[in-house]
Design goal:
Blueprint lengths: L3 H9 L13 H14 L9 E7 L7 H17 L2 E7 L6 H11 L5 E6 L11 E6 L2 H9 L3 E6 L13 H4 L1
Parallel strand pairs: 1-2, 1-4, 2-3, 4-5
């Protein structure tokens, strides 16, 4: 049997490129678990710089995407937070188009948009006070990101209901 790290690397070579980022090594899981345990000791989390992992989208007004941006805009307006939105997955629009759409729809967002490519590790992103997963696929990215003081899952709905019954529903 292969050690877990080598088994993960071997399995990743067979994944579609857009799914290769959704893999976490046992060591990354252990480190993330330790981080979350230590985070529970915090009495307050600074909110000056926030990082949001958001799947690629084509319409800023669709359900969950709109909700994430409304929450980020609210934090920017009430706490003065600066938001970084890391868009991942199959590109559906350029960052400049997304930035323009967001600026028009959410003028108080105070955000910088970046594209996180399949080959780019989340740890290449700059430090943040808090980071948010916004969909189950982004939880993998959040687990790999280690430059924040706190991690959160921005739960909006029962996500398995987004998919037909099958292996993705069961994930």
């Amino acid at each position: 049997a292969l050690p877990p790290e080598k088994a993960t690397a071997a399995a990743n070579q067979y994944l579609e490129p857009e799914f290769s980022m959704f893999s976490v090594t046992p060591e990354e899981l252990r480190l993330n678990s330790d981080f979350v345990s230590s985070m529970r000791q915090l009495k307050q989390v600074p909110a000056e710089r926030l990082l949001w992992f958001v799947p690629s989208f084509d319409n800023i007004y669709r359900g969950g995407i709109r909700t994430v941006f409304m929450a980020a805009e609210h934090l920017a307006r009430t706490l003065g937070s600066r938001n970084m939105i890391a868009i991942y997955g199959r590109e559906r629009g350029s960052i400049s188009i997304i930035t323009a759409m967001a600026g028009k729809a959410f003028p108080g967002l105070n955000a910088e948009f970046v594209s996180l490519t399949d080959e780019q590790h989340p740890s290449t992103l700059p430090p943040a006070d808090a980071a948010f997963a916004t969909l189950w696929t982004s939880a993998y990215l959040l687990a790999q990101y280690d430059k924040c003081k706190a991690k959160f899952y921005f739960m909006q709905d029962f996500e398995p209901s987004f998919y037909p019954a099958g292996s993705v529903y069961g994930a």
